[in-house]
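Example S7 (C-alpha cells).
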C-alpha cells in the first residue's frame, strides 16, 4: 500500500493530533521523572537509614526506579496489543489514567517511620503501575505520531515524542528546583517532595480530556482485519524485534545518563550542590527540547542513518572525556550537559520514526513496545543504580566507559541499518 492510501482525517488536522499526543505524553513523563529528581528526599523518608553507609537509602530508591522500568516491557506488550486491536486512542486513554492513579499513590506513600516496611512496598507498587503505563504510552504514542504525519514529515512528527517527553521532564525538574530553593530541608522532607506527585495526578485528568478529541490513525483496513495475537509481533518478526533492541541500547543509556542521572552523578562525583545540579539540568533540558524538531527535519531531508551515527559515534568517543571533565563548577556541568544534548538529539529526535518504519501496521504498536521497553529496562532504567553502585564500590570512573561501549555497539547496528526516511510508510 502506498503512502497516498492513508487515513485522511489525521493528516488534515496534524496540529490537533500533535497536541493530543504531546500534552498527554508530557503529563505521563512529568509523573515518571518527578521521582528521579526527588530521589534523595524519597530515600530519606521511605527507606530505613543505615548507620554504616549513607548511600544505602539512595541505592534502594534507584533500585525501585529500575524495578519500575522492568514493568515497561509488560506495558509495551499489553498496551501495544490494545493499540493494535482496539485503536491507538484507546490505548492512550488507558495509559494516562493509569499514570495519574499511580502518581497519586506515590504522593500519598507513608514514611518508613510511620508504617515500617509497608512504606517501600507501597512505593514499589506505585512504580510498577507507572512502569506499566509508560511502557504502553511509548508504544501507542510513537505509533500514533508517525501515522499522523504526512509524506516527508515523519521525522518531524517523530521529534515531538521527545519534545513532549522533555517538556514533562522540564516541568518536573523546574518544580523540583523551585521547591528545593523555596522550602527548607524540614519542609522538603516532611511534605514538599509529595507536591509534584499530587499535581501530576491532577494534570493526568487534563491530558485525558485532551485525548478525547484525538482521531484514530489505524486504517479502516486494519480495523476490519482479524485482531493480532498478543505475541504475534515477536513470533513473526524476530529480526525486527532484535533490531529495535540494538538501535535502542546505546540511545537509552545515554539518554537516562544525561537527562536523569547526571545531576546525581555530579553531586556524588564532583561535589556539585544539589540546587545547582537541578538548575543546570533544567536549563539543559530546555535547550534539548528546542533541538528535537531540527533533528527531525534534518532526518526527513538527509535520512535517519546519518543522525544515528552522529549520536552513536559521538557518545562512544566523547562520553569518557565529558564525564571526567566534571568538577565543582556550575558552568562546567552546564557545558557538559548541553554538549551531550546536542549529540543525543541524533537519536531522540528520530527514534519514534525509525521504530515505526520497521514494523508493519498490524502489529506496529506491540512490535515496538515490547523490545524497546525491554531494552530501556535493561540499560536505561538501571543507569542510575549502576552509576551509584560503581561509586559505592570505589570505581566511579568505570561508569563513563560503560556508557561509551554501549553506544559503540549501537553504532555498529546503525551502520547496517537500511535507510527508511524516504520510503512509504506501510499502512
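Recovered sequence:
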Amino acid at each position: 500500500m502506498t503512502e497516498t492510501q492513508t487515513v485522511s482525517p489525521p493528516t488534515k488536522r496534524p496540529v490537533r493530533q500533535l497536541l493530543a499526543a504531546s500534552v498527554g505524553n508530557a503529563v505521563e513523563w512529568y509523573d515518571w521523572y518527578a521521582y528521579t529528581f526527588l530521589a534523595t528526599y524519597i530515600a530519606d523518608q521511605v527507606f530505613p537509614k543505615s548507620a554504616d553507609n549513607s548511600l544505602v537509602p539512595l541505592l534502594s530508591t534507584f533500585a525501585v526506579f529500575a524495578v519500575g522500568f522492568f514493568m515497561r516491557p509488560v506495558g509495551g506488550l499489553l498496551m501495544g496489543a490494545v493499540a493494535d486491536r482496539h485503536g491507538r486512542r484507546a490505548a492512550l486513554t488507558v495509559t494516562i489514567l493509569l499514570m495519574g492513579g499511580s502518581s497519586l499513590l506515590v504522593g500519598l506513600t507513608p514514611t518508613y517511620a510511620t508504617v515500617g516496611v509497608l512504606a517501600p512496598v507501597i512505593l514499589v507498587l506505585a512504580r510498577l503501575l507507572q512502569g506499566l503505563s509508560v511502557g504502553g504510552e511509548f508504544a501507542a504514542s510513537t505509533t500514533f505520531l508517525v501515522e499522523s504525519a504526512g509524506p516527508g514529515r515523519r521525522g518531524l512528527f517523530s521529534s515531538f515524542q521527545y519534545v513532549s517527553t522533555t517538556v514533562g521532564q522540564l516541568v518536573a525538574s523546574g518544580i523540583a528546583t523551585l521547591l528545593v530553593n523555596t522550602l527548607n530541608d524540614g519542609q522538603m522532607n516532611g511534605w514538599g517532595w509529595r507536591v509534584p506527585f499530587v499535581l501530576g495526578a491532577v494534570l493526568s485528568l487534563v491530558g485525558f480530556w485532551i485525548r478525547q478529541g484525538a482521531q484514530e490513525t489505524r486504517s479502516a483496513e486494519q480495523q476490519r482485519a482479524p485482531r493480532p495475537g498478543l505475541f504475534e509481533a515477536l513470533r513473526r518478526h524476530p529480526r525486527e524485534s532484535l533490531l529495535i533492541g540494538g538501535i535502542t541500547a546505546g540511545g537509552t543509556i545515554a539518554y537516562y545518563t544525561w537527562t536523569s542521572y547526571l545531576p546525581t552523578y555530579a553531586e556524588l562525583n564532583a561535589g556539585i550542590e544539589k540546587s545547582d545540579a537541578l538548575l543546570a539540568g533544567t536549563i539543559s533540558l530546555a535547550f534539548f527540547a528546542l533541538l528535537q524538531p531540527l533533528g527531525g527535519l534534518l532526518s526527513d531531508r538527509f535520512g535517519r542513518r546519518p543522525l544515528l551515527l552522529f549520536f552513536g559515534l559521538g557518545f562512544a568517543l566523547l562520553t569518557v572525556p565529558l564525564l571526567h571533565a566534571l568538577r565543582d563548577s556550575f558552568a562546567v556541568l552546564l557545558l557538559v550537559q548541553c554538549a551531550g544534548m546536542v549529540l543525543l538529539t541524533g537519536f531522540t529526535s528520530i527514534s519514534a520514526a525509525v521504530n515505526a518504519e520497521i514494523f508493519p501496521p498490524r502489529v506496529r504498536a506491540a512490535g515496538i513496545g515490547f523490545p524497546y521497553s525491554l531494552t530501556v529496562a535493561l540499560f536505561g532504567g538501571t543507569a542510575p543504580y549502576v552509576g551509584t553502585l560503581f561509586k559505592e564500590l570505589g570505581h566511579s570512573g568505570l561508569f563513563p566507559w560503560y556508557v561509551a561501549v554501549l553506544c559503540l555497539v549501537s553504532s555498529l547496528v546503525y551502520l547496517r541499518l537500511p535507510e527508511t526516511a524516504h520510503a512509504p510508510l506501510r499502512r
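Notes on this example. The chain has 21 helices and no strands.
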